[in-house]
Amino acid sequence: MGIGEGIARTLGQAGAHVVISSRKTEDCARVAQRFRDEGLSAEPRVCHIGRMEDIASMAAHLSRVHGGLDILVNNAVLSPWRSIEDTDPSLFTKAIEVNLRGNWYLSVEAAKLMKPRGGGSIVNIASVAALHPDRMLALYSTLKTAMIGMSRSFALEYGEFGIRVNTVLPGVIDTKLAAAFNVAAREQILRNTPLGRIGDPREIGYAVLYLCAPSGAFVTGASLVVDGGLSIASH
Amino acid sequence: MSLEGRIALVSGAARGIGRAIALALASDGADVGLIDIDAGVEETAAAVRGLNRRSCVARADVSRVEEIAAGVAAVVAELGSIDLLVNNAGIVNNIAPFVKMKQAAWEREIGVNLTGAFNLARAVIGPMAERGFGRIVNISSVAARGGLFNQAGYSATKAGLLGLTHTIALEYARFGVTCNAVLPGLIGTENVLAMPAEIRNQAVAQTPARRLGKPEEIARLVAFLCGDDAGFINGAEIDISGGGHLNTLVLGSRKELSGGPPRT
Fold first, then answer.
1. Taking the model in full, what pTM does it have?
2. How many angstroms separate the CA atoms of B55 and B123, rounded?
3. Nearest to B220 by CA among B240, B237, B200
4. What is d(CA B87, CA B164) in angstroms, rounded to the nearest whole number?
5. Is B179 exposed, middle or buried (0-12, 13-18, 19+ CB in 10 A)?
6. Which phi and psi angles does A80 have, rounded to 5°?
7. B150 to chain A, closest Cα gap in Å
8. Residue A42 and residue A20: Cα distance in Å, rounded?
């Protein structure tokens, strides 16, 4: 289970209807089916957020079928493992199109759908790499930092419409990506994380749920670090 | 209920945010010990009991280590070992231009807002670590980052709480104790409602959410941080300000900034 699925499940279990979105049709369908088997309300909807036409089509679908939107979680990301020297302009552009432009315009469309409803909640999933960059992940780290700026700017401009925009910064979470670390890297992470464990995708979901629920109604423009203390141990 | 079986201790629980926190923890199932110097804290205890939770009161000054030792011992004797500590007690007694600030007022503010949290955390953290579970939440302020005109003491103590939070988080994580900070913006407490309306209205107009926060909203965040769902959040600083922390100019500082050189 990735972080996106963990968040979607937490929101679904809290009673939301969840549009499962990803660039791969079969992934969306598989997760949405699993959710429905679990008794949750979900539908698949493919969307490659690097493509402006996909964003427009998602917005049209939400408007036509659901008449609006209450919650947007921007979790999709490209994370190329590359030194700075090896980061060529085409990769740079592609990463910006997904990690920055995609999230930005999906948020703009979401805000248009939220305004008539008197508000909504947008949660951007960044990373502790936004605060403490990782080697070989310069592009990823840079764009995660940009995501914080984006959240704060959107929070400032959309606050008067009741639209709240916050960032969650996960540390190392138990996903396919973390499973790919070798034993030495894993031990290093556990040593550096004060709580001595990696996080569960559902724990990111709980943070997102708090931010989206009525109890989080006064929280906007905030950065919520969910990392077991990793970032206070690394400075 | 997510805090069932937990025992909490809340300082500054007689009024405002502290009272709301005590009630939120109780509605989530915790028994709640209360610390305050104000006799009004008895009413909060009655309200906690009204939610069918146990409560008891220690009338103590958080800045005095021996009063806190005795107060915490009394609460533990009555309710049991503390699982959740909320350092909420705080004062603003010291509004003055920097050079006119009274030394005694500065020391009092440090004593309550910063040493108070230090005293309480030290009084409960040993048994938390022995049992392998604890949650400490420190109520800081957006003033920790932004600074406030004529409130050097308040601002400094609230920033000091962030350092305290990080260090406790680092030192005690391995024992299952987490420590986080909550940074409220302008909340509609008695103190804030007593501010000159002109200053308050200006601050609200500059807040993206266009309103004051409610004490209950701070309380829900604290309850979330105390619950099992927040187990991987440690050492975090969480702004809860309706976006007020995004602006640079609040609380009358615009007038001060355009008012010429500082008075001496």
1. 0.94
2. 19
3. B240
4. 11
5. buried
6. -70, 135
7. 26
8. 7
**CB pairs A-B closer than 8 Å:** 122
Q: Which uninterrupted H or E stretch holds A199? A: none
- The rounded distance, in Å, linking the Cα atoms of B74 and B78 is 6
Range A185-217 burial, b when 16+ CB lie within 10 A, else e: eeeebeebbbbeebbbbbbbbbbbbbbbbebbb
| ipTM score for this prediction | 0.92
Structure tokens at B102: 């009274």
Q: Does A178 touch chain B (CB under 8 A)?
A: no
Reference A76, options A13, A33, A19, A155; nearest CA is A19
**Cα–Cα distance, B4 to B176 (Å, whole number):** 18
Q: Which residues of B touch A220 (CB under 8 A)?
A: 208-209, 241-243
Residue of chain B whose alpha carbon sits nearest to that of A157: B208
Cite the DSSP H helix spans in chain B. Answer: 16-27, 41-50, 65-79, 103-110, 116-131, 143-146, 152-172, 190-193, 197-206, 215-226, 253-257
DSSP assignments along A22-49, one per residue:
-S-HHHHHHHHHHHHHTT--EEE----T
User: Which pLDDT tens digit goes with each residue over A162-212?
Assistant: 999 999 999 999 988 777 778 888 888 889 899 999 999 999 999 999 999
Å between B102 CA and nearest CA of chain A: 35
Looking at the annotation, which residues of B are catalytic?
A: 154
Do A195 and B220 lie within an 8 Å CB cutoff?
no
Amino acid symbol at A29: A
Q: What is the pLDDT of residues A124-152, one digit of tens each?
A: 999 999 999 989 999 999 999 999 999 99
State both tokens at A71: 């919650």
CA A67 – CA A116 distance, rounded (Å): 10
